[in-house]
Amino acid sequence: MARLKDIAEYVGVSISTVSRVIQNDQTRNVNQETKAKIWEAVKELGYIPNQHARNLVTNKQKKSNIRTKKIGWVANPTQAEINPYFAKIYTGIRDTLTANDYTLISITKDELENEALLLKTIHDLGIEGLLLIDRIDNSLIDYIQQTIPLVGLDFFYTDKNMAVVDYNREAAIKMVVQHLVGQGHQEIGFIGGGVNETFEDLHAEYRFKGYQSAMEEAGLAVRPDCVINTKWKMENSYEEMNQLIKRDSTHLPTAMVCASDMMAIAAMRAVLESNLRIPEDIAFFGVDNIEMGKYSSPQLSTVEIPKYEMGRMAAKTIMEMVEEKIRLPIKLILPFELVLRESSNVKRT
Fold first, then answer.
1. I need a labelling partner for 48 at 20 to 30 A (CA). Which of 4, 108, 139, 185 fits?
2. For the whole model, what pTM was predicted?
């Protein structure tokens, strides 16, 4: 069995550095590149950091007859409370697990990223599988899968070697842009958020990729001044839309494609407060079909995402993986559809 010394020699750092990273010791900084190399070495050499992990591996190999029927839910503690998109997914997960006599246990991202605490938490609570929504380091995913099954939801996990339940974000936005182009729009802007830790990397986000691709296929130019990265904050969507209007009120886009309904609703408020009309001056299209969109003024056109069904399928998948009915990392990509309402119902001539 690999030792700390083996990890240290493999990476070319001290044993104390390896220990700090594995124990998540914050007293001294270790740069991200070194951390990544250490976790990669942990996986490559098969290092198991504590007795809890050894117990988990042993139990997995021997397949104990004792069942806890507990599934971990790894998400930002406030996501399901304040974001209607995640709330619907959570409800689908909870209802399905409850109906099958499983218990859903909340685990924080911090508990996951502290390797010793993660394995201790899973062992002590008897977690049989994990559902991931909040983003965790790539270097941990394979390592966790050595002990228990994982299912990822949302765009963080679409391209990972693990079971995933999601929808095609790129295709969804392409359909929105194609619909707007069909209505005669040529000046089409975009509102969304990035995908890295600070949400600044907009170009790597699938909905933005779909927007760029559809604009290119339609022979339309993307105006950088009409692309807004809100970093997924409603207040940023409102403020940035205000700034866009103030910069050049005579050359505004005729339509805005928004990566979520919440971003769209905030931006629409800025437009209406500037005495512009929706959709006559600027049309809006969102994504998610949250309940709030039905009651915005005007009602928001959007993409219906099967949020509850995503949660239900994620729960069914993790149960079947735990019960060893599924052994491969399957990927379920659920369908979507356009919901046409008042915010985009005017054709351009």
1. 108
2. 0.78
